[in-house]
Amino acid sequence: MLVFDHVSKSFGDLRAVDDLSFEVEAGEVFGLLGPNGAGKTTAINMAVGLLEPDEGVVRFADEAFDRDPRDAENRRSLGLAPQSIALYEQIGGADNLRFFGRLHGLRGTDLEERVVACLDFADLTDVGKKVVSKYSGGMKRRLNLAVAIIHDPELVLLDEPTVGVDPQSRNAIFERVEQLRDAGKEVVYTTHYMEEAQRLCDRVAIIDRGRLMALDTVPALIEAHGGPGNLVVRTGDSESRHETTDPLGTLAELQARQAVDHFQYLPPDLETVFLNLTGRALRD
Amino acid sequence: MNKIVAMAAKDIHILFRDKLGFFFTVFFPLMMAIFFGAMFAGLSRGPANIPIALVDQDRTSASERFIERLGQASGLAVEQIPREEALEQVRRGRTAVMVTLTPGFGAALDNPFVTTPEVEMTVDPTQFAVAGMVRGVLLEAAGAELQDLMSDPARLGAANSQNSLFFESLPPSDARDQMLTFLDLSPRVSSLIDEMGLGAATGGNQGFGPPLEIEQTEVQAERPGPTNSYATSFAQAMLWTLIGGSVSFSMSIAIERSRGTLMRLLVAPITARHLLAAKGLACLGATLFTSTALITLGITVFDVRPTSYPLLALALLCGSICFCGIMMALSVIGGTEQAAAGIGWGLSLPLSMLGGGMVPLFLMPEWMQTLGNISPMKWTLMAYEGAIWRGFTLNEMLLPCAVLVAIGVLAFTLGARNLRWDTG
Ligand SMILES: Nc1ncnc2c1ncn2[C@@H]1O[C@H](COP(=O)(O)OP(=O)(O)OP(=O)(O)O)[C@@H](O)[C@H]1O
Ligand SMILES: [Mg+2]
């Protein structure tokens, strides 16, 4: 279990992570949602021991997580897919997997079995021998993810794993993440794509400027922060929008006053929650 | 250990996949070996004429005539200089042969019937082929002298009357009388030969012993350079493969940082020590491999003959150790790959120039060779050349090897201590 306990981290004057607390449980996909610069990557880096918190503790499996990146033992059971693709481009996909597998102590047939499984996981079996520099963006993304799980870790941290890929690759990645969850892994998934979080994440933490704004399941978040939905009504050529928490009642009221040709109800979604919590001002 | 080897193998794999890295560690040094080897091979064949130093202690018109004849002979470049200077030239290996015309040479040349003219030849024993050729030219010249003498009745007559006086002074005997009769007749021999039309068929020294006695002494020349120019050029190439390898590997840490793989390595269950050891091992393995491959090629194809194989192995190892240390220091000085490459090459080129990486050490003036002591490249070349053609003993090899290992260990330690471990 990954635990953030009142964790803060600053770069100079900038408070990148500010008093952040959460716990991730086995068999769940935990979403870290936030606009650019919210502190998602900084949080991930503290989780894997690359960065040391200024305040608070990052713990893993209830033991004090050793924050010294040079102490190897605590890192055995975690796998990281970094936000920017981190692969050796000059060698093949299978060789990348094999290399990182060896680094995690795999060898012989165990290693080869894992390489085959991970190539399959990333749908790259046919191109495993091809050098990575010849891969498409989607293939690299999938390999970037596969390398994170070569050693079959308990905790998998995926930092924006779908950036720059086509809908097909994206969908494949979703399915793989669900597969990981079904296998009982703990998955931390950062993104700023709402529909991804809504589809994949069991619980979502929305953070902004390093602070935790809300943390719950998606329906609960929508319930709490989604606000009213929208009823769109069309009569002839004119269309009107009505905010409401009671779409049936509002529709009946409208029909009493005018003829309604067509209507559509747009319930609040995670994006509404996100914008309500983080505001509409541009970041960066 | 398995992890270190895995990381090192990956680095070497990548190095040989990387076209630029491959160029600088393998292709460029090899081209250099062949290019400079061929170039200096042409030079050491030198001018078409063999230089000989000539010392004339006789100083007669006859000796001058002989010298002139030698000068016209094809194949020799005769330089007339004092004896001491000539000896020095042979000692330094600048001239292969020194020829001395001792007092009395001219008299014997004009009158070879009593004493055969004699020259002293001083040679460097390794230059026996050249000495043989000079010997031939000297004999030829003396033969031509004799032929001239025999076909010139006036000179022959002068010699004979001189000899007659000598024989007449001896106590009477049959032999004396026969000798005098022969001398009396001999001036007519050449005209008789001409009358019979046999002139062209007779060699000048026919019926006589060799027209010239050559007394040969040997002087051991200091070897200023190798006999095979590829011996230096391959040593230089091996140095360049070290330089290319160390610069490429110094970039590799920066590249791992910029490509994000350093983050992956740091998140993996390995320690910084593992990482450093792997980088060092990769650099050591790659440079040892390429330098060994180069010298193997030199030995098998270009006839380079190392004077000691065990010392060569030692030199190869120490050279690689030194440059792997330098690699680590370079990767600290250059934070980004461009900086690492720029600083690496920027430092390597002048130091190589000074250390004999471009112009061979033995062609450099003494003071420059001394100045070169600040360059690790010079110590590497000393070790390589020591085993390849300088004929170092183990004791002589210890100094350059100790310097190399010391530089390597120091640079590696400094580098490893100051390496940035952040991933951005
Ligand atoms: N090493 C660093 N030095 C200084 N500032 C940093 C460093 N790393 C991150 N920051 C700053 O900290 C803040 C949080 O960055 P972080 O990368 O964690 O955001 P993020 O949520 O991952 O954003 P994105 O969605 O763009 O990836 C940003 O303002 C960033 O500029
Ligand atoms: Mg980020």
Structural overview:
Chain A contains nine helices and 13 strands. Chain A has 284 residues and is an alpha/beta fold. Chain A has a six-stranded mixed beta sheet, with helices on both faces. Chain A has a four-stranded antiparallel beta sheet with strand order 2-1-4-5, with helices on one face. Chain A is globular, with a radius of gyration of 22 Å. Mean pLDDT of chain A is 88; it is low at 66-70. With 424 residues, chain B is an alpha/beta fold. In chain B, 68% of the residues lie in helices and 7% in strands. Chain B contains 16 helices and five strands. In chain B, strands 2-1-3-4-5 form a five-stranded mixed beta sheet, with helices on both faces. Chain B is rod-shaped. The model of chain B is unreliable at 199-207 (pLDDT under 50). Chain A binds chain B through residues 48-50, 69-73, 75-76, 78, 80, 82, 84-91, 95, 99-100, 102-105, 107, 131, 147, and chain B through 2-3, 6-7, 10, 13-14, 17-18, 259-261, 263-273, 421, 423. The site of magnesium ion has 4 residues of chain A, from helix 1.
Q: How many structural domains of chain A?
A: 2
Instruction: Determine the number of helices of chain A (DSSP H or I, runs of at least 4 residues).
Output: 9
Number of helices of chain B: 16
Strand content of chain B: 5-15%
The largest sheet of chain B, given as strand count, sense and whether it forms a barrel, is:
5 strands, mixed
Shape field of chain B: rod-shaped
Tell me, rounded to a whole number, the average pLDDT of chain A. 88
Topology diagram in text:
The complex is a heterodimer of chains A (284) and B (424).
Chain A: E1 2-11, E2 14-24, E3 29-33, H1 40-47, E4 55-60, E5 63-64, E6 78-81, H2 93-103, H3 108-121, H4 137-148, E7 155-159, H5 167-182, E8 186-191, H6 194-200, E9 203-208, E10 211-216, H7 218-225, E11 229-235, E12 238-244, H8 247-257, E13 262-266, H9 270-278
Parallel strand pairs in A: 3-8, 3-9, 6-7, 7-8
Antiparallel strand pairs in A: 1-2, 1-4, 4-5, 9-10, 11-12, 11-13
Chain B: H1 2-17, H2 19-45, E1 50-56, H3 61-72, E2 76-80, H4 83-91, E3 97-101, H5 105-110, E4 118-123, H6 128-150, H7 153-168, H8 174-195, E5 213-218, H9 229-259, H10 261-267, H11 272-301, H12 309-333, H13 337-355, H14 366-371, H15 376-388, H16 394-418
Parallel strand pairs in B: 1-2, 1-3, 4-5
Antiparallel strand pairs in B: 3-4
The structure holds adenosine-5'-triphosphate (ATP) and magnesium ion.
Magnesium ion binds next to α1 of chain A.
